[in-house]
Queue: 4 jobs
Job 1
Amino acid sequence: MDLDAVTKQSVLHAKPDGLTLQYGTAGFRTKAEHLDHVMFRMGLLAVLRSKQTKSTIGVMVTASHNPEEDNGVKLVDPLGEMLAPSWEEHATCLANAEEQDLPRVLVDIGEKAAVNLHQDAFVVIGRDTRPSSEKLSQSVIDGVTVLGGQFHDYGLLTTPQLHYMVYCRNTSGQYGKATIEGYYQKLSAAFVELTKQASCSGDDQRTLKVDCANGIGALKLREMKHYFSQGLSVQLFNDGTKGKLNHLCGADFVKSHQKPPQGIEMKSNERCCSFDGDADRIIYYYHDADGQFHLVDGDKIAALISSFLKEPLLEIGDSLSLGVVQTAYANGSSTRYLEEVMKVPVYCTKTGVKHLHHKAQEFDIGVYFEANGHGTVLFSKAAEMKIKQLAKELEEDKKRKAAKMLENVIDLFNQATGDAISDMLVIEAILALKGLTVQQWDALYTDLPNRQLKVKVADRQVISTTDAERQAVKPPGLQEAINELVKKYRLSRAFVRPSGTEDIVRVYAEADSQENADSLAYEVSLAVFQLAGGIGERPQPAESPEQFLDDLPLFS
Ligand code: 16G
Ligand code: MG
C-alpha cells in the first residue's frame, strides 16, 4: 500500500472534524455534503475486500427511498450479497478515522482481515440519479485507484443491477452477462418464456402503471420495456422528468401513508405499482369500484409467489424444501395464511435485507419479503441443478412443463438481491398465468388493521430486543407493559425496536379494527416514552387517522 499517496489524496477528500457515521442497516446514509470522505474511504475499503476475497466487489452510491438531498454508499460482496458483518465494522472504523490516523487504520484492517496486499483488486461502481451521486462516485474511484485497484464504472444503475453485475463477474458469466443488456436479456427472456403458457386475457390485464419515484427505476425500465413489450405493457409515472426524487411518491411513501402517490392517474380496479428511489422495493395497489384504496404489500407478494411455486413443486414430485422468511412487520394475517392455508413453514428475522437473505439461504427454495416490498426468491445451487436436470430429462409432459416453468422462475428472480424490476416481472407472469386480477390476488387474505408510530427518546440504544425484534429485553418493565396492553385487544400484537436508520424508536401494533390498532399503538408509544427516556412532546392519541399520517415523516 502506498500510504503516502493515500494521505495526499485523502486531503482532497478530507473528513469534516468531529463527524462520526455508522455503517447502518444498508450502508452509510446522511446528507450528501457530508459524504465525500466516506466515498473515498469506501473505495479504499472495497480494494482491501476485493484482495481478501479474490473477487470483484461492488460499490453502490445511493440513499434509496430517502430525500434527494441525502446520499449513501454500500458495498456489495462477491455473490451479490450485503457486506459481511465483520467488514461493516471495518467500514465504520475507516469512515470515522481522523485524517492523521487513516494510514494506521488501513494497515490495521489489512492485518486483522489477513489481506494479501499483492493480490489484484477489481471494483465495480454504480450510482442512482441524485444530483450528488456523480461526484461522489468519482470520489469512490479516487479511493480505488490510489490503492492500485482496477475498476469498472457502470454509471447509472439500480441497486439490484449492481448486485447482478457483481454476481455475474464472480461466477465467470455463468449467472449471466455482466452488462446492462445482459441483465435485460436474461430477465426478459425468462419472462417471455414463462408467460408463453398464459392464455391471452385481453389488453387490460397486461397493462401496468408504474410509479418510478422519480428515480433510476424509470430510466432502466424505459430502456428495458422494449425487451418484453409483447408480454406486458408498462406505463411509467414519476419518471424523473418533472418531480423530485421520492417526493410524495415511491414505494415507501405509498406503504407508510397507505395512499396513492402523486402524479399517477388511477382508474378503478387498475393494477398499479411503485418502486423506491433505487428500485429495490416494489408495492402494488389499486382503487376499488367505490374509490377505496387497497395496498398489496410485500407480504402479499410473498403469499402470491409461494402459492404459485407450490404447484409445480408438487408436480415434479421432488421434495425440495420451501420456506418463507418475514420480519416482525409482516401482517399477522399473512403469517397465518402461509402457515395454515398454504402449509409452508414461516420464519421471522430481524429487519433488513441481509438478515432475511441469510435465513432464506437455508432452504432449497427460500422466499423472503419485508412488508415494505424488499424481497426475492433464492434457489439453492442443488435445487437449481435438480430442476434444470428434470426439465431436460423428464419424459412425462406435465412434469417436464412444471420443471421448465420453475427453470424460468429461477432465471427471472434476481438471486443476488431483491429487485423491483425482477419482482414486477415475476408477479406479472404469475397473474397472467393464473388469470388473476389484482383484486383476486388481494383477496388471498385480509390484512389485520395496523399502525406504525415513532417515538423520540434520548438514546434509542436503551431498548434492546430479542426473538427477531418481537420482544424487548431492555429497559426493564417495557415488555411487561406491552404484554398488558396487547391483552386488552382482540387479534392484537405489538412490538418496539430502535430504528437502524434514524434516531428514533419504532412502534408497530395490529388489532381487529383500525381504531384498536391505533389505540394500541398509541398506548405502546406512551409506554416507550415513559420507560425508555422519551424526549420532546408526549405521544398524543390520534383523533383521526389523518393525524397519524401526519405524524409519519415522508421518508423514513
Ligand atoms: C433499510 C433496509 C430495509 C429495512 C429498513 C428498516 C436494506 C437494503 N434496506 O432501508 O430492509 O426495512 O432499513 O429501517 O437492507 P429502520 O431500521 O429505520 O426501521
Ligand atoms: Mg431501496
Job 2
Amino acid sequence: MISFRTTSSKISPAAFTPLAEEVLAGLSACPKTLPPKLFYDEHGSRLFEQITELPEYYLTRTEREIFAEYATEIVSQAGNNLTLVELGAGSASKTRLLVEALARRQLRVGFYPVDVSASALRQAVSTLNGHIRNLRVHPIVTDYSKHMPLLSFPGQKLVLFIGSTIGNFETDEAVEFLRRVRGSLRPGDALLLGFDMVKDPSQLHAAYNDSQGVTAQFNKNVLARINRELGGQFDLEEFDHVAFWNPGMSRIEMHLESRLEQKVWVRDLGMVFHFAAGDRIHTENSYKFTSSSIAAMLSRGGFRPERTWTDPNQWFSTVLARR
Ligand code: AVJ
C-alpha cells in the first residue's frame, strides 16, 4: 500500500491537469479509488453506448420505454415554452424522444446538453441537429459536478438529469448537487430525474457482469486512459473486473482487482503505485433507489416530487420535481 513520489523536480503539482490531479488523489488514497466520470473519454463513451445495448443492461432500454410511452405527458406536465437543459447528456439518444415531444408543442426548442465528454456531445449534436427543424442545440462541455453552468436564459426551463446518473453520487453529494441545481432554477422551472430502482439482486448482478465482457472493458478503460493520457504502465490483463450488489448500501460496486503483487509506474505523475495481490481500486458506486429513498433525497435537496412515471415492472422511475 506504499505509494511514493520520485525525486524528479521537473514535475510541479501546480501544473497537473485535472485528470492527473484526480488520478494522483485516487491512487494515493487508501483504499484506492478513481471517480467514475474518468470512464468517459472517447473510447469509454463508445463502450458505454455499447453497454446500453447489451441484453443484460435493462436501464437505458427501460427508461427509453418510459419516454416512448409518456414523453408528451412528461413535457406537458413540466410546463409551456420550455428550454431543455440536460446534465450529463452523453449522446442524448433517449432525450431525443423528449425533444421531439417538445418540438411538437412549441414553435422553437432550445436544447443545452452539458457533459464532460466533448466526443459524446458531438454525437448528441449530430443525432439531433438538422433532424428537427425547430430545434437549436447549444452543447456545453463542462464538469457539472464542479461547475454548475449558469443557466440564465429567459423563460421556463426543464432540466434533465436522467439515466440514473444520480446513482453515481453518495447520498450527501446527491443532496448537495440537487441544492446547486435548485440554485440555478427559477420558480416554475422543473427538474426531471431518472432513478434505477432496487430489484432482484441476480438481475442487478447480471447488468454489471455482462456475458460479452463489455462492462469489464469499460471498467478497465480507466486504466487504459491513464496509460494513454498520463504515460501509465498498467497491464490490463493483470486486473480483474469485479462488480457486485452491496445490499446494506443499496448499491452496485465496481472495482478493479489486482491479480498479483505489482508496482505500476505513471510517468506524468512521477509516481509508482504498489498493489498487493487482491488489492482493489474502487471505480464506481451505482446506487439503486426505492420510492421512499427518492422522496427523502429530493426533499433534503429542496425539491418536491410532482409526478412519477414508471415501466410495468417498476424497474426504473422518471420523476418530475419542482423547487
Ligand atoms: C451511467 C451511471 C447510470 O451506473 O449503470 C454502466 C454506468 N457502469 N455499467 C450505471 C455504468 C457500469 C451507469 N450510469
Job 3
Amino acid sequence: MSRTFSISPGGTLSGTISIPGDKSISHRAIMLGSIAEGMTDVYGFLEGEDALATLAVFRAMGVRIERPGPGRVTVHGVGAHGLKAPAETMDVGNSGTSMRLLAGLLAAQPFECVLSGDESLSRRPMRRVTEPLAQMGARIDTAPGGTPPLTIHGHGALRGIRYDMPVASAQVKSALLLAGLYAAGDTCVREPAPTRDHTERMLDTLGWPTELRDGYICVRGGARLRGARIDVPADISSAAFFLVGAAIAEGSDVLLPSVGINPTRTGVLDILKLMGADIELLDQRMLGGEPVADLRVRGGGLRGIEIPVELVPLAIDEFPALFIAAACAEGRTVLRGAEELRVKESDRIQVMADGLRTLGIDAQPTPDGMIIEGGRAFGGGSIESHGDHRIAMSFAVAALRAGEEIGIRDCDNVDTSFPGFVSTARTAGLGIAESRSAMTSGKM
Ligand code: S3P
C-alpha cells in the first residue's frame, strides 16, 4: 500500500504556518552530540524519518538518546572514542545525509559496520565520499557501481589531507571534516562554491572550531567536543513549498516563523525575489549558532528569469518547488549548472519535467537544468513522484494554480523531511486529501 495525494484546484494560502525543524541540522545534532562529552539538549529536532534514522544508528552504537517531548532530544554523549560496534547492518532508509556523513565518522572508529539504504538511496553515488576518505586511509567497500551498501572497515589510523572537492557538496565536505576530527594532523577541504556550513557552525558551538586557511576549511584531529544546547530553526527547504505556494496564488498571505536563513541556504529567497515575489524577512535574529527570521509572503505576479548559476548550490534542494514557481511565472525561466539534481532522491530534472508536462506545461529538460515557458493556464493529472518527498510536495502546491485536480502517487517519503505536511497544508488552505492504494512494480 502506498500513499497518494489528491489536491483540488485553486485556492489561496493564509495564516501562520509552522514548519518542522531543519533536517541537515537535526542530523548533525545527533552525530556531533553523540561523540561529544556530556549532554546535548536539542530543541526543535525534526522528527522525520531521515533524522530518526540517524538517531537509530547512534542508539545501535550504544549512545543513550532520550526523546522527552515533541521536538526534544537529549543525547548523552559518549565522547569521541565511546561508540560501540553495532550488532547488525544499519539501515538509513532514504537518507543520503546519514549515509555520506556517517561514512566519514565511522571510517575512524575501531570496528567494522555496514550501512544500507532503501531503493532510491541504493542507486546514489557514494564514491564522492569513499574516494577522498580512502586518501585519508579509510577502508570502505561499496557495491560495484560505487553505490550502497557501504562496508566500513573502521580503524583508528586516518591521516589528514588537503582536498579540492570536484563537486559543491556539503555532504562530502562534512564527511571529510567528521573523519578529520579523528585524523592525524589537519584535514583541509576546499569547495568549488559555498555549500551549507551547518557542520562548521555546530563544531564551533561544541568547542572544536574549524579554521579558514587560504580558502580551505580546516579541522584539527584529536577532537574533544563538549555537549551543548542546540536550537534547530525551521527548515527553509520545507518552508519552500509554502513560499512558492503563497507566491503563485494571488491573494495569499502567510507567515512562516523562525525559518533558518543561513546565507548558504537562502538561494530560494533570492531566486523568488528575482522572479518578483513579495517576501519579507521579519525579526532577523540568531537562534543557537544559526540566523533565523519570520518570513512573510504575499501572492502576486511572478516573472520568468535566468537563474544565476552562483545561486544553484544555495538552493539545491528547492528546485522542485522553484520549477513550479517558474511554471506560474510570466515568460521563460532557464536553469543551468544544476546537474547535481540528477543524483538526488530521484532524477529531479527528468521527474519534474515529466510531471510538468503531464499538467500541460512546456518544460524542456537539459543535461544540467530546465527551460520552462511559464505563465500559461495548466490543467491537472496524475503525477509520479518516484518516491521523492520534494517532488510530491512541489506538485501538491502546484494545484493552487491548476485548472483541474492533481493526483500524486508514491508519497510515503514525505515523512522523511516533513511529517504532518498534509494537515499543515490543509490548515493553510490547500485542498489536499490523502489515501492509500496498492502499488504494482513501483506504479499504482
Ligand atoms: C545536505 C547537503 C545537500 C542536500 C541534502 C542535505 C546536508 O546534498 O541536497 O539534502 O545536510 O549536508 P549535497 O551535499 O549532495 O549537495
Job 4
Amino acid sequence: MNLLNAKKINLLGYDVANMKIFFSEIGEKPFRAVQVVKWIHQYGVDDFAKMTNVSKTLRTKLTAIAEIKTPEIIMEQKARDGTIKWLMRLDGGNSIETVFIPENNRGTLCISSQVGCALDCGFCSTAKQGFNRNLTSSEIIAQLWIANQALNQFAVNDEGISLQKVQDSRHRVITNVVLMGMGEPLLNFDNVVEAIHLMLEDHAYGLSKRRVTISTAGVVPALKRLREECDVSLAISLHAPNDQIRDQIVPLNKKYPIKELLVACQFYFKGDTKKKQFTVEYVMLSGINDSEKNARELAVLLKELPCKINLIPFNPFPESDFVCSKTQVIDRFKDILYKAGYVVVVRKTRGDDIDAACGQLAGKVKDRSRRLN
Ligand code: SAH
C-alpha cells in the first residue's frame, strides 16, 4: 500500500489496545501507543509535530499517514444557569449536540452516540429527527476532547505543560460523562465501548466507572455484553410501571419487555453496586404514567433492584403531543416512592433557555430511516 496516497487514519478514537495494534502494524514499538494517547487526551495536542518525546523521524512518518481530527464547532451557546451547548458539524449536513452542565460539586458532560435515533420514543425530540448513522469512536470521544479544550482543561497551553493540572484531579471541571445526548448508545456498541475505554484510561481522562454512565432504552442482549466488556454505571429509561404503558411510549419495549430488562439489570449489577451506579429514569407525562397507582406499581416493580430513581419533568418541544405533569403531581409521585424506601431525585431542568434539556437535543440529522418517509 502506498501510505502517502491513502486516506489518513484518524487516531483520536483509538484506545490504548488499538493504538498498540496500529503502532505494531506500522513497524513501531507498542510503547509509543501510551505516549501518543497521553499527548492527545491529557495534553490536548492534535499535531504530531508537538509530541516532543517522540522521535523526529516517527513524527514525520505519523504526519504522513495519520491525523488527529475533531469535528468543527459551529455553535457554542451558554445558558443563564451556566450550561453550555456545542453544535458540531459532521459529514454531509449532519451535526450533533453536546452539553456541559456545571453543578456545585461536579461538572457533567452529556454526549451523543448516534446521529439521530432509530428508537422513536414518542416524547423525545431526537426521535422526531429520524436516524442517519452511528458515530465513530473518534466522534464520540471528540465531544469530551472539544469540551476540555473549550473549558481550558488540557495541560498544554502556550506556556507549555502544567504538570500539576495533569496530576491533580481536583482541578477537573468535567468530572462526569453521561451518554444521554442524541442516540441509543447500546445500538452503537463497539464504538461507544472504545470511546469509554479512553474515558476510563489513566493515560487519557482517568474517570472512574461510577462517573461514566450509559443511558439506554433497554437493549437487553447488549447489556449482557456490556457487563463483560465495560461495566460502567447504568441508567435505564424505564418511564412506565407496566408493559401496557411502556409499549406506547418506548416502542423498543415490544421487543424487550420490562421483565426481561429488569432481569438483565439485576445480572448487570450482581454483587457489585459500589463501583458503579444504577439509575432508573422516569419521564413525567401528564395523564400517561404519573398517577398515584403508577407510583405504587413502580415501587413494587423495582423492589429487588438496588437503584436510584430519577424523575424527569417532561421537556416540551414543538412537535410533541405530551404535557409535563404538574409540580404537585410530581411531588406526590416522589413521596410515594420515597416512603417505599427509594432514593428519588427530581431532575432539575437545565439549560432550557438554549434547548439543552433532556430530549431537546436535535442537532441536524439527514434522516435515512424509512420511518419518517
Ligand atoms: N437513548 C438513550 C439515551 C438518550 S435520552 C435512552 O433512551 O436512555 C436521555 C434521557 O432523556 C432518557 O431517559 C430519555 O428518555 C429522556 N428524554 C427524552 N426526551 C425527553 C423529554 N422531552 N423530556 C424529558 N426527558 C426526555
